[in-house]
Design a protein that fits this description.
six-stranded mixed β-sheet, single chain, elongated, about 300 residues, Alpha-Beta Plaits, two-stranded antiparallel ribbon, alpha/beta
Length: about 300
Amino acid sequence: MIETVKLTVKLSNFYKMPLINKVLSLALLIYIAIFSAYSLTNFPPLQVQNNVYGFTTDFINLIVIIFLFWMVQCSELSKKAYIFSSFGLLLWSIGTTADVLDELVVQPYWISIYFEDLCRTSGMLLTSYGLFKTMRFVQSINNRLARELIIDDLTKVHNRRYFYQHAKDAQHSPYVILIIDIDHFKMINDEFGHDVGDVILKELATKYDNAFTHQNKFARLGGEEFGGYLPTNNMTQACDFSQQLIDLAHTINIQNSRHLTVSIGVAMQTPNEPLDKVMKRADQALYLAKKSGRDRFEIAP
């Protein structure tokens, strides 16, 4: 079962976050407290009533930046995204703190001009790059999840979801469906173990996936059953290809004791026939191939 993590910004997250996140969070709060106290006690005060608007807007900006910084500490980002976002927002907060105090006291020229602007500008640049890395991180996760949705985890070939979606969306009509099933697979698992069974599944899937070229599609439907989609109306070609697949299975040895065999059901789509009906006829043909001795293919009527 996949464990999901819910993003929250509760203060209680502080006790659960890594040490570096705690250190940066405390460092920011300590800096703001010490710098504010030092500025208010050592620099000449200004008339606050004349700077209410400027103070209010700068203070709100500082609160927003600190909140963004806290969100980053509570998030699980890639290493680079976290570093650039954290240090960017840290510098941005330092510069904005000086900007807020600039509305309350007369700061030295080097603070109000150089220190304040340098920290704020460099913080914005680092935060922007951190946002870019975050977007790249999210995109990589999205790409991985999209791939996992259509790829079988064991064999690394397309899965049932992809096969059905591709066959439904394909424009070619008619087409041929193959349902391929490994003969006596349960006996193989019972005799040699499931690890050997998994190796056979992966080896057969790799060989078959390489055999399905051009617009032909191959997928694992589940268990020891595989599916093939052939955009053709030539049943002779489909039958020849099915026999090639049977011969290809013979190249796989089961623990050097015997070669692998498969049975295949073949069905061509009739005019306007939906995919599920074609699949059902191919499955019935597969059942007939099994009943007729296995290691063969049968064509659905």
